[in-house]
Amino acid sequence: MRRFATVILTAFCISALPMPSIAQTGVTQIARNVREIDKNFDVADKNHDGKLTREEAQSGSTPMIANHFDAIDADHKGYVTKSDVHAFIQRNLTRGHAAAASSSP
User: Fold this and answer.
1) Sign of CA dihedral 42, 33, 71, 12
2) What is the residue range of the signal peptide feature (predicted)?
């Protein structure tokens, strides 16, 4: 839950800056998407250990996690946690801001 709050706070802070991708979706939509990913994570986590293996991610309703599994599993553990997923989202939100800022005149 603490990681979720950090992701939302980061998204909120970043949304105050000029960035087309955040401006189009908004913080509320990002929060909804993260909650949906968390819900789908729980459904896909068949053994309820708080970890998704690649197989669980691919067979569950978590296409974002399945499609980006290697990038989310930055430590190459063979599984991902919600914290890993939240960190991946946060990195991409930050990376999107950096890219938008560098392309500004």
Assistant:
1) negative
2) 1-23
The SS3 assignment for 12 reads helix
Average predicted confidence (pLDDT) for the chain: 80
Please state the pTM of the whole predicted model.
0.68
Question: Mean pLDDT throughout 53-67?
Answer: 93
The DSSP H or E segment spanning 48 is none
What does the longest C-alpha to C-alpha distance in the chain come to? 51
Q: Helix, strand, coil: what percent of the chain each, to 5?
A: 70, 5, 25
Q: Which residue has the higher pLDDT, 19 or 84?
A: 84
CB 26 within 8 A of CB 54: no
* CA quadruple 66, 71, 75, 81: dihedral sign: negative
Fold of 2-86: Recoverin; domain 1 (1.10.238)
